[in-house]
């Protein structure tokens, strides 16, 4: 819990969400939308987590940089996040790559996505900048990270996860001293450095950074003038500050928000089809690893006006029911069964059909007598009557995208090609 502060630092901060990523490892799920716009958890989009964390932390000035296939992301934010009021010193700026610096230059990296909007940020005059990735699932109080930043006198504070060393090679990894001051920043090292006193664990970057705004502007202008820079926070800005200033690590355990029954500090990069599938199904556990029922830290999103979920028929072999599943509004489970599954808004299940360990995105239709197991259905998919997926790996791999862990991703185009 927070201790008492006369003036929350979040009031003087701006959150800047980097939401331009393609997310190519999510394969067809990002063919028509950016990764932050991918659906998650029944009613939300991935970007809602970073934005909700900012609002719940007390930050009332937010900018979101978009680039890759941003239409659905922008439309979602316009609908879900239009409650900010300028008369209350609140703002919500959507900042598409718009060639503001050069007529031929889009955002060239994470740092450049901020640099190109320095003039817009300056109008709001925040004292602190909280730079966020828009494609992770977690709950975090940024106020606590801001306090550590100020108390430590750091030039940059980097949000970090404590992960086993053998799992850290896919991250940017911090080499720190006993006070968690960063002494080296290494991108995806083959042999990650351990933590002092805990050599089997490593500190991995979450892609979250806190700066004083004036200092950040100086660094962005310096970096923009460097012809050899990749214009990236993790690759250029932070390593430079590690060498020439003071960089501090902030451990996620210090600011993770957990409801009473949540047993772990939950953070997920849902950047692969398998990771996305497992994170969604985490929510169906009896005691979910991530509690979306926590009214003290809500995940805000677009609230669609729709009818409640409906379950119909009660005959042997034709009974509408759901077990260990989340069923969203406007769903109709008609004489069918959902087990350990997550149904997004507007899903219709025909009689005698069944789904098990399924993540079914909005407005899908599952035909009568279909059987689906270990599947993700992209939005709007119509499963033909009697189709079976999840029982014949060879056939599944011919028709759909099947991952190494046996999860089948099914899109409208894949169904159309079946004839």
The overall pLDDT, averaged over residues, is 93
Helix content: 10-25%
Please describe the biggest sheet, giving its number of strands, its sense, and whether it closes into a barrel: 9 strands, mixed
CATH domain topology of the largest domain: Spore Coat Polysaccharide Biosynthesis Protein SpsA, Chain A
GO biological process, one term: glycogen biosynthetic process
Pathway: Glycan biosynthesis; glycogen biosynthesis
Pfam families: Hexapep_GlmU, NTP_transferase
Protein name: Glucose-1-phosphate adenylyltransferase
Word description of this protein:
The chain has 419 residues and is an alpha/beta fold. It has 2 domains: 9-284, Spore Coat Polysaccharide Biosynthesis Protein SpsA, Chain A, CATH 3.90.550; 310-417, 3 Solenoid (UDP N-Acetylglucosamine Acyltransferase, domain 1), CATH 2.160.10. 22% of the residues lie in helices and 28% in strands. The chain has 10 helices and 29 strands. The protein has helices spanning 47-57, 71-80, 110-115, 118-124, 142-152, 213-224, 233-244, 273-282, 393-399, 412-417; strands spanning 13-18, 39-40, 44-45, 61-66, 91-96, 128-133, 136-138, 156-164, 172-176, 182-187, 201-212, 247-251, 267-269, 310-312, 314-315, 318-319, 321-323, 326-327, 332-334, 337-339, 342-343, 348-349, 354-360, 365-366, 371-377, 382-383, 388-389, 401-402, 408-410. The strands form 6 sheets. Strands 1, 4, 5, 6, 8, 9, 10, 11 and 12 form a 9-stranded mixed β-sheet that branches. A hairpin with a 5-residue loop joins strand 9 (172-176) and strand 10 (182-187). The radius of gyration is 23 Å and the shape is globular. It starts with 12 loop residues before the first strand and ends with a helix. The model has no long low-confidence stretch (mean pLDDT 93). Belongs to the bacterial/plant glucose-1-phosphate adenylyltransferase family. Involved in the biosynthesis of ADP-glucose, a building block required for the elongation reactions to produce glycogen. Catalyzes the reaction between ATP and alpha-D-glucose 1-phosphate (G1P) to produce pyrophosphate and ADP-Glc. Pfam families: Hexapep_GlmU, NTP_transferase. Residues 16-284 form the Nucleotidyl transferase domain. Keywords: ATP-binding, Carbohydrate metabolism, Glycogen biosynthesis, Glycogen metabolism, Nucleotide-binding, Nucleotidyltransferase, Transferase.
């Amino acid at each position: 819990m927070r201790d008492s502060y006369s003036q929350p630092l979040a009031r003087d901060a701006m959150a800047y969400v980097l939401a331009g990523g393609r997310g190519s490892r999510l394969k067809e799920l990002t063919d028509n939308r950016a990764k932050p716009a991918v659906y998650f958890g029944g009613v939300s989009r991935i970007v809602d987590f970073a934005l909700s964390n900012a609002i719940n932390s007390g930050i009332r000035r937010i900018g979101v940089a978009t680039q890759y296939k941003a239409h659905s992301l922008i439309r979602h934010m316009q609908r879900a996040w239009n409650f900010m009021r300028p008369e209350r010193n609140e703002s919500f700026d959507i900042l598409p790559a718009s060639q503001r610096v050069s007529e031929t230059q889009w955002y060239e990296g994470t740092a450049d996505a901020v640099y190109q909007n320095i003039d817009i940020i300056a109008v709001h005059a925040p004292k602190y900048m909280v730079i966020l990735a828009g494609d992770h699932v977690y709950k975090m109080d940024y106020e606590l990270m801001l306090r550590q930043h100020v108390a430590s006198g750091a030039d940059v504070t980097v949000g970090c996860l404590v992960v086993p060393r053998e799992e850290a090679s896919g991250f940017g990894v911090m080499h720190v001293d006993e006070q968690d001051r960063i002494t080296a920043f290494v991108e995806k090292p083959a042999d990650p450095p351990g933590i002092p006193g805990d050599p089997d664990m490593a500190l991995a970057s979450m892609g979250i950074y806190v700066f004083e705004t004036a200092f950040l502007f100086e660094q962005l202008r310096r970096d923009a003038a460097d012809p050899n820079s990749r214009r990236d926070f993790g690759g250029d800005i932070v390593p430079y500050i590690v060498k020439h200033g003071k960089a501090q690590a902030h451990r996620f355990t210090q600011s993770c928000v957990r409801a009473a029954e949540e047993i772990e500090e939950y953070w997920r990069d849902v950047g692969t089809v398998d990771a996305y599938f497992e994170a969604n199904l985490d929510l169906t556990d009896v005691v979910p690893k991530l509690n979306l029922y926590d009214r003290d830290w809500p995940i805000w999103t677009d609230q669609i006006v729709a009818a409640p979920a409906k379950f119909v028929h009660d005959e042997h072999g034709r009974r509408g029911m759901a077990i260990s599943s989340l069923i969203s509004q406007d769903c109709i489970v008609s004489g069918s069964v959902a087990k350990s599954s997550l149904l997004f808004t507007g899903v219709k299940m025909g009689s005698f059909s069944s789904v098990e360990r399924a993540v079914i995105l909005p407005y899908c239709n599952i035909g009568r007598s279909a059987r689906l197991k270990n599947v993700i259905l992209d939005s709007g998919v119509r499963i033909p009557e009697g189709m079976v997926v999840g029982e014949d790996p060879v056939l599944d791999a011919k028709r759909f995208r099947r991952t190494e862990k046996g999860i089948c991703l099914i899109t409208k185009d894949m169904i159309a090609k079946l004839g």
